[in-house]
Amino acid sequence: MALLIVAGTASIIEFIKLSRSVNALIEDNYKTIEASKTMLEALERSDSGILLILLGERDDGREIIKSADLQFTNAFVIAKNNITETDEDKHIEVIERFYSNLWEKLKITLDSKNKIGDMGWYHREIYQSFLDVKHAVDELMSLNQNSMYAEATLLKEKSHRAIMPGIVAIVGALVFSLMLSFFISKYYISPLSEIAEAIKNFHPREKSIKTNIKNEDEIKKIEVEVNNLIEKLVKYQNEQIG
Amino acid sequence: MRTEVIIKFTGFVLLFNAFFLIVSSLISIFNAETSTIPLLFSGLICIIFGLFPFIFVEDHDEISFSEGLVIVVGGWLITCLIGMLPYLMWGGEFNLINAWFESVSGFTTTGSSILNNIENLPKGLLFWRSSTHWIGGVGVIMFVLLILPHSTSSRLTLLNAEMSELSKFNFRYKARKIINVLAIVYVGLTLVQTLLLTIFGMSLFDAINHSFATIATGGFSTKNTSVAYFNSVSIDSIIMLFMVLSGIHFGLLYGTFTLKKDNIFRSSVVRSFVLILFLGVLFVSAKLYSSGTYSLWRSLQYGAFQVISLGTTTGFATADSANWPAFTHIILIYFTIQCAMVGSTSGGLKFDRVYLFFKSLRKQLTLLQHPRAVVVVRINDRPISEHLETLTLVFLVLYIFTLFITTLILTFLDVDLYTAFSASIATIGNVGPGFGEVSSLSNYANIPNFGKFLLTINMLLGRLEIFNIIALFMIKKGNF
Would you kindly state where each structural domain of chain A is located, as residue ranges? Predict the structure, then answer.
């Protein structure tokens, strides 16, 4: 019983830790990974927007870039407010710096009308800035993915630790019940059976039943009382005959 | 055979284990580690299973030899089973077979490990791992005999079942005194080594763990690179000194410290043992230097440490001997087979048996020349009975036979011959590291699961000296 209580308590403690780890996994890493994915998507959209402008589709391009900027900024705020890993703040700073640099260049494209068809400008100025931001976001995502993997491995170990006390307690309880039944049989059932057998084999010529019970306990008292009863009966019988 | 008596005595063994499990769990709690619940829970299991028969079963004044035998073998098996629980519950690199392997390796003071990253273990579990060495070093039953006030006859029966005939040779004391001598020397050496290691720069935690492993001639370290991690000549020297002391008969050590006649300086076996160790160091160091493996000083430092470590069945390492010349491997394999002295904490064949074998060989050669001569084998001027001579020879044959069978099965499991052979010797000799894939700075993780199980049987055979296990099967068949 004590084993099962302790095992149950241990399992509950480990499961609480486990659920905290799951929360941490979702809160800490998954949120930032999703935000990073959104940032990458926004960057792709900005890239498409800038290409549209360069191809002469100015209004559509401006629209896409503005909505992508909003999308990027929202995702960036989520990531910035969810710094949970070592050096993650440095990654955020790099993304912020690179993105503001990109945005400066995007603004020039948005404001200027003479950039239409200037693919050289795109290759020289915009493309490298896009790559810088993408690379920085990728690194932030990798940091969180690696951490998530490590946390998942830890979760596996925690779940192992949560289950094991239960398994060990069940096996322990089984072995203990075997041991208990052995002792009950040895110290209670066997002596009682022995007394029953001795009573069964009792011959009227004998004055008492004979057993090998050595313990001075209640079972020994039964043997003594049975012998007292036999003695009284014999005495009574003798009186009747006499 | 009275089952309740056997259960009661094995219960005492569990209570003794419980003490170390609770201490380990306290270390875990103090360091806020993940091993707290596994250690605490295992300790609780030990207490419940140990206390129950202690309360329930009445005291018995006498126990028969067959009961004593079952208590000794059963005590070891139960201890190993309980010992694996903290590992199994903690997880990490420990699955069922790995936990069993680490536990048996610890208690039998073999020191072979399946761990790739020892430093990843929590401190509590590291302490338990070293404790298994210390509990097993002098024999699990020995502690029970020391603590519990049993009758002289039951103490004598258990002592006879736990110690070999040859081990008792240099103990000229009564059973109670033998147990006290063993305990005094064992605890004394552990305390002194811990103190010295701490003075020479080791942290108290590492010092205790390394002392447990040294005095028990085990070899579990708290570091991935074993003693090499500390890179200190003074630490190497202290460990070497205590490895040699732990490999010598404790009765003779006690005699030396208490200025008795039976001391290490008067024992021809000790003289021969130290001389052979010295020659081993000399040859290995010379070869290491001449082959250009290390400088002269490093050859001496690494050569001496490795020879003493394997020659006393400890198994610590300061260098990876896997890359050493073949000549040094042969010498190190010899020391792995020979092992240290009886009456010490080392396991395996034991140097005394090799010594007695050569004495018997000389006797047989003399008898060939003079068939009517009366030749008596003597050790330290004391005659050795023909019965003891025969027992020693039978033991040698059984030892070699077991070695052959284990190597055969391991090679069947596709383990390469060199690894299979050295792993078999290293485990039956309770040495720990072998060569090939299981070299001094490597581990047994890549051995197939059945191979690992087989090697644990080897470890138990080496620790219980084969005869006890055979005798146990004879009891089962009703032939004993």
Answer: 2-171, 185-241
In sequence order, what are the beta bridge partners of B382? Answer: B379
Look at residue B149 and give its three-state secondary structure: coil
Give the helix, strand, coil percentages of chain A, each rounded to 5. Answer: 85, 0, 15
Burial of B69 (0-12, 13-18, 19+ CB in 10 A): buried
Count of C-beta atoms within a 10 Å radius of residue A217: 12
- Which chain B positions have a beta carbon within 8 Å of A165's beta carbon? 37-38, 41, 89
In terms of Cα–Cα distance, which of B129, B341, B307, B346 is closest to B217? Answer: B346
C-alpha atoms less than 13 angstroms from C-alpha of B13 in its C-beta half-sphere: 28
Q: Is B371 exposed, middle or buried (0-12, 13-18, 19+ CB in 10 A)?
A: exposed
CB–CB of B89 and A6 under 8 A?
no
Query: A164: distance to nearest CA of chain B, Å?
Result: 5
Task: Determine the Cα–Cα distance for residues B480 and B295; give it in Å rounded to an integer.
Answer: 58
In angstroms, how far is CA B15 from the centroid of its own chain? 21
Chain B positions in Cβ-Cβ contact with residue A168 (cut-off 8 Å):
41, 45, 85, 88-89
CA B231 – CA B210 distance, rounded (Å): 14
- CATH class, domain A2-171, is mainly alpha
| Interchain CB contact of B101 with A (< 8 Å) | no
Closest residue on chain B to A165 (Cα): B89
Report the candidate in B312, B306, B394, B398 with the shortest Cα–Cα distance to residue B351: B312
Using a CB-CB cut-off of 8 Å, the residues of chain B touching A7 are: 41
The verdict on a CB contact (< 8 Å) between B44 and A2 is: yes
B89 in contact with A at a CB cutoff of 8 Å?
yes
Q: At B19, which amino acid appears?
A: F
Listed in order, strand segments (DSSP E) in B259-393 are 378-379, 382-383
Q: Does A12 touch chain B (CB under 8 A)?
A: no
List the pLDDT tens digit at each of the 480 positions of chain B.
788 888 888 888 899 899 999 999 999 999 999 899 899 999 999 998 988 888 877 777 677 778 888 888 888 999 999 999 999 999 889 999 999 999 999 999 999 999 999 999 999 999 999 999 999 988 777 777 766 655 566 666 766 666 666 666 666 666 677 788 888 999 999 999 999 999 999 999 999 999 999 999 999 999 999 999 999 999 999 999 999 999 998 888 888 888 888 788 888 889 999 999 999 999 999 999 999 999 999 999 999 999 999 999 999 999 988 889 999 999 999 999 888 888 888 888 888 888 889 989 999 999 998 888 888 888 877 888 888 888 888 889 999 999 999 999 999 999 999 999 999 999 999 998 888 889 887 889 999 999 999 999 999 998 888 877 777 777 655 544
Report the residue of chain B nearest A12, measured CA to CA: B37
Using a CB-CB cut-off of 8 Å, the residues of chain A touching B7 are 179, 182
Q: Which of B42, B74, B80 is nearest to B453 (CA)?
A: B80
Angle between helical axes of B386-412 and B449-463 (0-180°, round to 10): 170
Report ipTM (2 d.p.).
0.74
The B residues from 225 to 254 touching A (CB cutoff 8 Å) are none
Residues forming beta bridges with residue B378, ordered by sequence position = B383
